[in-house]
Amino acid sequence: MVSEQGVIEEVSGQKALVRIEKTSACATCGSRGACEAVFDKAMIVEVTNDLGAGKGDRVEISVSTGSYLKLSLFVYFFPVVALIAGAIAGGTWAHVFQLHPTLASIVGGCLAMGITFYALKRLDRSSYAKSEFQPRMTRILR
């Protein structure tokens, strides 16, 4: 389980907005430039309030390790594989479209990576992603 602690900022029905302060791990994270908390010292995460926590409560939120690894694969590995496969396919098909092999490789790689990003965006908006990859409130800290 990957866990972080935060403070509930707002409760609305069964949902709660949790403010998570940046930790020292953020300073060495390779993805800090793509993180929502680049310019702020905190991130706001929406979680289901199964524990009945109230505004101001300190809580722990977690994501399962399996989900975390799947997300890492989706975000980092698949686009790179698509880029390489698209570049190889573009170079192979260059003669069919009467293009220079280098140009065809660039176009093929960009096209394949763009399709992968589009597919990832669709997955992100799906109900499957919302349920499996959503962080959960695991306990209220006193």
Describe the biggest sheet? 5 strands, antiparallel
The CATH level-2 architecture of the largest domain is identified as: Beta Barrel
CATH H-level homologous superfamily name of the largest domain: Nucleic acid-binding proteins
Structural class by SSE content: alpha+beta
Task: Give the domain tally.
Answer: 2
Under CATH, the topology of the largest domain is which?
Answer: OB fold (Dihydrolipoamide Acetyltransferase, E2P)
Number of strands: 5
Q: List segments where confidence is low: pLDDT < 50 over at least 5 consecutive residues.
A: none
Mean pLDDT: 85
Helix content range: 40-55%
Termini gap: 21 Å
Could you characterize what this model shows?
With 142 residues, the protein is α+β, with helices and mostly antiparallel strands. The protein folds into 2 domains: 2-65 and 134-141, OB fold (Dihydrolipoamide Acetyltransferase, E2P) (Beta Barrel); 66-130, no CATH class. Helix content is 45%, strand content 26%. The protein has a 5-stranded antiparallel β-sheet. A hairpin with a 2-residue loop joins β1 (2-12) and β2 (15-21). α2 packs antiparallel against α3 (101-125). The longest helix is centred in the middle third of the chain and has 28 residues, at 65-92. The protein is elongated.
Name a few traits of the molecule.
OB fold (Dihydrolipoamide Acetyltransferase, E2P), five-stranded antiparallel beta sheet
SSE topology sketch:
Blueprint: E1 2-12, E2 15-21, H1 24-28, E3 42-48, E4 58-63, H2 65-92, H3 101-125, H4 127-132, E5 136-141
Antiparallel strand pairs: 1-2, 1-4, 2-3, 4-5
Helix pairs in contact: 2-3
